[in-house]
Amino acid sequence: MQEFFKWTAWEMTPPESYGLFHILFMILGGFVVVSLAWLLRKTNERQNKIVLGIVGGFLILSELYKQLFYFYVVKDCEYSWWIFPFQLCSVPMYLCIFCLFIKSEKVKSWIYNFMFAFNLFGGAISFAEPSGLNHSYWTLTIHAYIWHMTLVFVGLYLFFSNRAGQKWYDYFKGIAVFLICCCIAQVFNVTLKNKGGVNMFYISPFENSPIFFFDNFNKQYGWFANMCLYLFGLILGAAILYYAFWGVRKLVYARRNKKLDPINKILKIVSTEL
Question: Which ranges in 89-222 belong to alpha helices (H)?
Fold first, then answer.
């Protein structure tokens, strides 16, 4: 096992932000996931489970590879607790599989709106500031890029298939799931505080934020103020994305109904005369 992971430890110079690798991946990957999400927009519930099952299974297998790679190659058979998979962008790995066994449409609606708003935002913002995606190994870099592009796909798929982003107030369902995940993340942060570097959702009371701006803010004003500002920023950013998509949907529906109005009037007149 160790030999296999060492064999896949192909070293590379980390790609530059907005360099050729980054831009090409965004263009080609974006085209693929948008096209695929659009093509799958008419899935029924059985097909939806297949899509989510494939995505969840892929995320689990790729995350397992990453965890074992760090264990065998990066840390030489020592587990790195700081990469424990419960960051914001890790949550869809669990939720996609969880939704396969949930019968309540209300619960699934809450989860779908969370993945549409927050994970689509998380995937998109990762490509806007890709320093966390770039590693010194090809496999880790490709894993990070594909992982976050998959989050973009899931968010778009749920929106295009009308499973998320339908009502203006559905965003608050996503906020509720997000806050629940934050509480779980904080439990991990407190429980694993002695394991070194554990900072789930980057809100740990014991670790500084690794994110630009928030690292200095944390040092100056403390973890609680930083946590509140950071979570507010995520909620605001996801809200902007959510309502931008929701607004486009409303405009499309309005134009479609406007075009149908004359036809409906003619049909109504004809049916009355008959």
Answer: 91-98, 105-114, 120-128, 138-160, 171-191, 214-221
Helix and strand numbers (H, E) in the chain are 10, 0
Report the distance separating Cα 48 and Cα 166, nearest Å. Answer: 17
Domain range enclosing 22: 2-273
pLDDT tier for residue 272 given thresholds of 50, 70 and 90: low
The total number of structural domains in the chain stands at: 1
Question: Taking Cα atoms as reference points, which of 203, 156, 154 lies closest to residue 178?
Answer: 203
**Cα radius of gyration (the chain):** 22
- For 165-211, the pLDDT digits (tens) are 999 999 999 999 999 999 999 999 999 999 988 999 999 999 998 88
Looking at residue 229, what is its pLDDT? 96
pTM of the model: 0.92
Rounded to whole angstroms, the Cα distance separating 60 from 41 reads 24
Read off φ and ψ for residue 49, nearest 5 degrees: -65, -35
Token duo for residue 247: 């607004």
Work out the number of other CB atoms within 10 angstroms of the CB of residue 189: 21
- pLDDT bin (cut points 50, 70, 90) of residue 270 is very low
H-helix or E-strand spanning residue 243: helix 223-273
- Determine contact, residues 116/110, Cβ cutoff 8 Å: no
Q: How confident is the model at residue 262 (pLDDT cuts 50, 70, 90)?
A: low
**Torsion on CA atoms 205, 206, 212, 216, rounded to nearest 10:** 90
